[in-house]
Amino acid sequence: MAEKKKESPEYIAMRDLALSQLKSGKSLTGEGGVFAPIIKEFLESALSAEMECHLDEEERSIGNKRNGKSSKTLKTSSGEITIETPQDRHSSFEPQIVKKRETILADNLAPQIIGLYGRGMSLRDISIHIQEMYDVEISATTLSEITDRVIPQVKEWQNRPLDEVYPIVWMDAMHYKVRDGGKVTSRAVYNILAINKEGRKELIGMYISESEGANFWLSVLTDLKSRGVKDILIACTDNLKGFSDAILSIYPETEIQKCVIHQIRNSLKYVASKDQKTFMKDLKKVYQSATKSQAEMELLNLEEAWGKKYPIVIKSWHENWEELTTYFQYDEHIRKIIYTTNAVEGFHRQIRKVTKTKGAFPSDMALMKLIYLATENISKKWTQPVRNWGLTIQQFCIKFGDRMKIDL
């Protein structure tokens, strides 16, 4: 049997001190912390090695050499550490591990800084918050550099592979202002929110364009296909002209459900305010019908009552009828999910809570970066399937056959 290694008195003392500080909630790395001397020694050794590299043969040939040390206190989220930094006679040494005039290990605070930024705080507010919390100043430039570290994550996320099939997808756009070449212009942020085969929400796409239009949606759908999406069973959209054609050109078997609420809003724009209450009472009988055939009868009644006064409104319902009534094929719990774009609009409301303090974004990437971080926070709650998903997926398997397979 191997003999148990005897622990040194120094190790035992450090272990006991570390346990004591952990139990009391005291920082292990800050001033007085058990690991502070180790961090101090590491940083000072690294700085000394950097100085040796700096004082190469060329530097020494012009008379440069070590010129003592200076003391510097570094602030971290865990406390303060005082280190000795080497100096050279010509003051040309530029250390990298702890830069000149750097009094805070910014990397130590990067997660907190990115987290605050993702919740909508401005760089100025973050700077004030960090100063209040840690009594240090971080410039807006440094903060911007830290938040820019998520850009590779954003690009990787945008290009990640997707599932082959998504049962339900909602598509909608948000609008923001961005500075472009010295002037402020509008940007449309295209979002594709989906329910995957497990019944969980997932943002599968986010794109930026100068304006919302069916042509750009076509490029969005093409991108989804290139990332592995072979089929979408039901696509829920607003009433943008040409949208359905764009979807069907890429996914010809997809069922389109136009948003009934969008249709209602658009209709009421052309109904006199004195008639809106009565008109809505009649209109509810249409879209709240139990069956499609009953809804068609109620639409004829609506036309008889209001067709002469508001012919354009009634015509719009007839023209969009097939794509407004897809939901009648399904049970009540599925109808509630697909007959409006409320799911993606609810997501947009959460995003706007984060972006509402912003005026014009400095760039497209600054806009994308913030929405990505906000989405990361929002999606932490998307851990459970939508209600009644077990029943829903079974209906989809029956209705769509080989297009919707599940592993049992």
UniProtKB/TrEMBL annotation:
Region (Disordered): 58-80
Superkingdom of the source species: Bacteria
Cross-referenced InterPro entries: Transposase_mutator
Single biological process term from Gene Ontology: DNA transposition
Keyword list, A-Z: DNA recombination, DNA-binding, Transposable element, Transposition
GO molecular function, a single term: transposase activity
Function: Required for the transposition of the insertion element.
NCBIfam families: transpos_IS256 (NF033543)
PANTHER family in UniProt: MUTATOR FAMILY TRANSPOSASE, TRANSPOSASE FOR INSERTION SEQUENCE ELEMENT IS1081
Annotated family: Belongs to the transposase mutator family.
Name the UniProt record assigns to this protein: Mutator family transposase
Organism for this UniProt entry: Plebeiibacterium sediminum
